[in-house]
Amino acid sequence: MKFCLYLPDMSIDKKYVINQRTLLYEVKKRSRASRLFKPMAFFAVSLVMAVAYFWIYASVLGLELPKTALLKKKNAEWCSKMEVLNRQLDGYEEALAALQMRDDDIYRSIFGMNEIPAEVRNAGFGGVNRYAHLDGADPDGLLKSTAIRLDVLTKRTCVQSRSFDEVALLSKRAGDMASCIPAIPPVNPDPAKFRLSSSFGYRKDPIHGRTTMHRGVDFAMKPGNPVYATGDGVVESVKFEFFGYGNQVVIDHGFGYKTRYAHLKAVGVVEGMKIKRGECVGQSGNSGKSSGPHLHYEVIYKGNQINPANYYDLSITPEEYATMVQNTADASKNITLHPSHQRRERKRS
Predict the structure, then answer these.
(1) pTM of structure
(2) pLDDT value for 207
(3) Which of 142, 165, 11, 12 is nearest to 84 (CA)?
(4) Distance of CA 259 to the CA centre of its chain
(5) pLDDT at site 248
(6) Taking the CB of residue 226, how many other CB atoms lie within 10 A of it?
(7) What is the pLDDT of residue 71?
(8) Is 218 strand, coil or helix?
(9) Nearest-CA neighbor of 296 among 215, 236, 225?
(10) Into how many domains does the chain fold?
């Protein structure tokens, strides 16, 4: 019969066996295989127990692993932040839309500027997929859609900022605008010299008899009456149409405004000529398609004819009108004449 006793040793693993004959404990060294088997067996048993624990924890009990729970918590936090960001973007988009509406309907309209097209304001970022790096990291597409919204909103803000810069630049020329808008009648409002033969709107054509849109105002008067520019501007065109307006002059006043003076007997301006309000552009006549001597006058705003009656006041007295015309002529004369010539003219007067 043998008895074994294990005694701890800090240096080596020893096995003590009692000798039956001598009744003494003798050291019996363990083999290398037996020394490696015990830790390996312990490791294998621990691994099996760990796998069994996670299987019971996740599959049987239906609980989440700690790391999964932590990742889900972080994901929920980021989703909450993205929702807050999207609500803020909604507010910014509403505020920007209000600014765009005010810009198009008020500011740009006042100064005769064309509206900025919607495709320019809301343009996205085409071409190369600049958001490809978000595809793998964003399976729900929330981060990608928010990034796109932020970029588009940034671009719309830049477009609006440039628009306000343009409006601010034109607002500095508000005084010029007041003198450019066609604000006086094109003829001296002396009731003894003219009558309004046709107003703006639908009427029966005096030549063909059909109901058509009359896009101006007709001042019936004898040929040869002076016709005056109703605002400062530049002569855009001078031409003759045999079956249309006859001799006509179109003045570009800027800020979206133009005026047309048609059926003239004679023209006193040339294309490209700068002209002041109250300067004579020609004489009334009966040229082109006309049923009688008259001046056809149009106000054109942003390419569309509008009612000229909204821009002049026929209650001004003929004397006041004549004084304005004379002041314009004197101012133009002083600008165009050399100072020495101006002195000669004053001596003659």
Answers:
(1) 0.60
(2) 75
(3) 142
(4) 29
(5) 97
(6) 16
(7) 84
(8) strand
(9) 215
(10) 3
Structure token digits, residue 97? 């839309």
Cβ density class 77-86: b for 16+ within 10 Å, e for less: eeeeeeeeee
Q: Two tokens at 10?
A: 């800090």
Q: What pLDDT is stored for residue 37 in this prediction?
A: 79
| Ranges in the chain, pLDDT < 50 | 1-2, 4-12, 336-349
The verdict on 241 and 267 lying in the same domain is: yes
Residue 249 lies in a domain: yes
- pLDDT score at 138: 65
- CB-based contacts of 184, cutoff 8 Å, min separation 6: 228, 230, 231, 277, 278, 312, 313, 316, 321, 324
Q: Residue ranges of the alpha helices (H) in the chain?
A: 32-55, 66-102, 108-110, 118-121, 142-171, 174-180, 318-336, 339-348
219 token code pair: 């001042």
User: What pLDDT was estimated at residue 206?
Assistant: 76
**b (16+ CB within 10 A) / e for 12-33:** eeeeeeeeeeeeeeeeeeeeee
Do 229 and 274 share a structural domain? yes
**118 belongs to a structural domain:** yes
Beta carbons of 248 and 240 less than 8 angstroms apart = yes
